[in-house]
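Lab meeting, item 3. Inverse folding demo.
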């Protein structure tokens, strides 16, 4: 949250902590490959999920695993942390579809009974108040569930013609953005489930990642067409020219002050870019 540190993970079975001011890198070895790594809001802890369904919470200050538990006998493909850092949600694929589980971050205890979400879930996101959780699935649907009891609140709503690869909430929780393999991005009213405005179009490949700026006014999207694009969240208008990349982006995030966006791909490279509205110069500032 202070913008002084970045954390990356790789299939080389390591998590690396990058200290921006000191130009130092700390490597934390893990015993197995992980499917995903997600940061807690405090920026100090991270949760990892391996191929055996085990969850581990890493403290980057102590440089060690502080909690771990078996999350599911099926492969967990998606994990997310609640805005207050007290809950962890996992989505695993079973013979009957996707099973969602909500865990206490400190104890690993299940908060509510596991609940089915229907089709195979491709993306999961807590609402800003932590009371709801949204999903996007491979059939192009989005849905919203109550976190405490696991009941369906909204949907499933047909959002896209194909997989919903990523979903993010607006900062006030009134809107939801979805991105899909159909190459477009859409905005939804989270109370009515109705689409807001026209689709955001411009990508020529699957849209796999979305990130909202810290002030909530801008949206960044990444696609398999090897570009990142920036959008005004209110009007849906494109901001500046797309950022042309050498490879597909597999992860990205805004810096806490919104000046930079970090990205990483398959080429073992972590890049930092200055956003176009900061000073009109969309440039790579470090690798």
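The presenter then showed the designed sequence:
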């Amino acid at each position: 949250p202070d913008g002084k540190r970045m954390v990356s993970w790789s299939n080389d079975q390591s998590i690396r902590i990058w200290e921006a001011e000191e130009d130092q890198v700390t490597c934390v070895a893990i015993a197995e490959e992980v499917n995903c790594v997600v940061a807690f809001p405090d920026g100090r802890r991270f949760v990892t999920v391996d191929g055996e369904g085990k969850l581990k919470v890493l403290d980057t200050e102590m440089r060690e695993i502080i909690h771990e538990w078996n999350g599911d006998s099926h492969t967990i493909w998606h994990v997310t942390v609640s805005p207050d850092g007290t809950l962890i949600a996992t989505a695993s694929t079973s013979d009957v579809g996707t099973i969602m589980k909500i865990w206490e971050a400190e104890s690993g205890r299940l908060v509510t009974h596991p609940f089915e979400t229907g089709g195979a879930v491709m993306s999961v996101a807590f609402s800003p108040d932590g009371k709801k959780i949204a999903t996007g699935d491979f059939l192009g649907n989005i849905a919203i569930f109550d976190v405490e009891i696991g009941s369906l609140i909204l949907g499933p709503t047909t959002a896209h013609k194909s997989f919903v690869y990523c979903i993010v909430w607006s900062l006030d929780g009134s809107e939801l953005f979805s991105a899909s393999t159909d190459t477009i991005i859409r905005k939804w009213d989270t109370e009515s489930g109705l689409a807001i405005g026209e689709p955001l179009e411009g990508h020529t490949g699957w849209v796999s990642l979305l990130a909202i700026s810290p002030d909530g006014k801008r949206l960044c999207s990444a696609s398999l067409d090897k570009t990142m694009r920036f959008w005004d969240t209110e009007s849906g208008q494109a901001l500046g020219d797309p950022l042309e990349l050498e490879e597909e982006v597999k992860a990205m995030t805004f810096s806490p002050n919104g000046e930079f966006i970090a990205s990483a791909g398959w080429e073992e490279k972590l890049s930092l870019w200055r956003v176009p509205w900061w000073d009109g110069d969309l440039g790579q500032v470090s690798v």
